[in-house]
Each structure stands twice: as C-alpha cells, then as structure tokens.
Specification:
single chain, mainly alpha, 2 domains, two-stranded antiparallel sheet
C-alpha cells in the first residue's frame, strides 16, 4: 500500500470543469506549524538536544539557558531509557511508549510530534485491540504534522473498517509506512463519520475531520477565485456545517467550549472547562487544542459559519 503525496503541486487550473480532487491539487500544500528552529532564540540552524533529542538548539549555551526544558527533558529520557530496556513486543514496553506519546504530544516541535507518530503507529501495530486508543490520537498527530491527506485516509479507514483492523487474525504488510489507512481518498467527499449517538463512538475522529475540512476551506480561500473553486468551497462549507451540527446534536455545548476557551488561549484551559462533558468530548478537546492553536484563523472561520447555543450551562458566554 503506497502513501499518497502529502504536498500536491500548486498548478493553474486547466480543465474547465475539474473534479474536486483536481481542484484540491491546485491548492497550496498543507503544512504544519511546528517549530524546527532553536528552542531558545529561533535560529534556523539548530541541532537536537543532546538529552532527549526532541527540541533543537543552535549552540550548547542556549540549551543551558533554556531551563524551562529541563523537567520535560528528564521525563522524556526516563521513558526512552525504560523503553530501551524492555523487550520488544512486551506489554510493558507499549505501555511506556503510550506514555511517551502523551508527553511528546504536549510539545510543539516537529521532531517531537514526528516521534510521537512513530511510537503511536508502533503501539497500534502491536496492540491490535487498541487498548490505548491510539486510533483516536493519530488523526490529530497527523494534522499537526501537516499530513492532512493521510489523516483523511486514516479516518475513512477506521470509520469503515474498524472491526477488521481490530481483528488479530487479519494480517497486514507492516513494512508499509502507514498501515490502517485506505490510501488516496478524495478529501472533497463527505466524510462518513458514523459515530454512534449514544456511546459517541468516533467523536474525536469527527472533530479531527472538522479541523481538516477547515484547513481545506482555508487553502481554497487563500488562492484567486474561479468558478470551480467557488463550487468546491460551497461544497466543503456545507460538509462542515453538517459535521458540526452532528457534533452539536451529540454534545450541545461542545462548540461553545471551543469558541470561548480556545480562541485566545495559549495553554490548555483549566479542568473546569470540561464541566458537563463526557470522556470522549473531553478527549477530543484535549487532543484538538494544539491543532486549533497551530491553525490560525480556523476557530474564527468556523464560528462565523455555524450556529451554537447562546450560553453554556449555568453561565453566559463570554463576549
């Protein structure tokens, strides 16, 4: 199974009536907003930290000055050391790797989030029953890395073939860089999210898909208008509204939480923000927070597109 191109070329429209996939190929490539520069001064030429390897510095002095990195550097090294000592395919190793994924996901460097994807995929490969719910975290990791197409492929696969993926009797070619995905799906199609209203299955996937569709819409809006682009823009906007209304139908106050708490926040809000939400909604909020932060303008665009309840339970919405 080959992986689709992550960076389609930006070309002029030639076909007077192109397919949505052809239109998507004309847009600027999806890119992430993760840091690759020095963690202290933002110099572009930097080398990985000699301790954890998950942040970069342009010189040793800047690592010494960055005392804010000390605690997480030690924590990462402890997990790395523990993982290295445990035998491959040992349950304890994958528990430790899951813990490391959680730590790395809180960081904002490209190398850390790339490492979290490697660990998360390895855990999913070897824990076929997915007791650690990696299938819920991976879409957001992919979005943070700018791998929008792979994220879409992954979500489509899981919402259509979950039982097959969870069956240990089914074999895969794990040399493939991205198993558990149906490759080269058309991101302009309507996402078949299919999460159960009662147990909120696939809720994080649906939130990830809203973010992905917003990114597609923002890419469309960033280039000169054409008749074909306007038609696709209308289609994607309607898909977004449908997805958001479905989420509102399950958790009525989910979007007000996002709009009120995430718009200006640079750090994850306090736990009281999660009052009134169940575990799946809280998980979706926590996983989506850095993606919102790394997608400037996405919250504001969505807020102008959908209707949300006028107030949160027990309190008026902030202005």
């Amino acid at each position: 199974m080959s992986s689709p191109s992550l960076s389609p070329p930006h070309e002029h429209l030639i076909n007077t009536n192109p397919t949505p996939a052809a239109v998507e190929a004309t847009l600027p490539p999806a890119v992430g907003a993760l840091k690759t520069s020095c963690n202290h001064c933002d110099a572009l030429e930097a080398e990985p930290c000699l301790g954890c390897g998950m942040v970069s510095y342009c010189k040793l002095d800047h690592r010494v000055l960055d005392i804010g990195h000390d605690a997480i550097c030690r924590e990462i090294q402890e997990h790395q050391s523990k993982i290295a000592k445990l035998p491959n395919e040992d349950t304890s190793q994958y528990t430790a790797r899951h813990g490391l994924v959680s730590i790395l996901y809180e960081m904002d460097t490209h190398i850390a989030i790339s490492a979290s994807l490697i660990h998360a995929m390895d855990v999913l490969k070897h824990d076929r029953r997915d007791r650690y719910c990696m299938r819920e975290e991976i879409p957001f990791i992919l979005l943070r890395l700018g791998m929008d197409q792979i994220c879409y492929d992954f979500c489509v696969a899981w919402t259509n073939e979950e039982q097959m993926f969870l069956d240990p009797a089914v074999t895969y070619d794990f040399e493939d860089a991205m198993p558990f995905a149906i490759p080269a799906q058309d991101m302009m199609n309507m996402y078949e999210y299919r999460f159960d209203v009662e147990n909120k299955e696939y809720f994080p996937h649906a939130v990830a898909m809203v973010l992905l569709k917003l990114r597609v819409l923002m890419r469309i809006m960033s280039v000169p208008e054409t008749r074909a682009l306007n038609a696709v823009k209308t289609t994607v906007a309607e898909q977004l509204k449908t997805l958001c209304n479905s989420i509102t139908g399950v958790i009525p106050y989910f979007w007000p939480k996002v709009f009120d708490e995430f718009k200006q926040s640079q750090e994850m809000p306090d736990d009281e923000v999660f009052d009134g939400l169940d575990n799946q909604a809280i998980r979706a909020l926590v996983l989506s927070f850095p993606v919102w932060k790394e997608s400037p303008g996405a919250i504001e665009l969505l807020e102008g597109m959908i209707n949300v309840p006028a107030s949160l339970p027990g309190a008026e919405r902030s202005s």
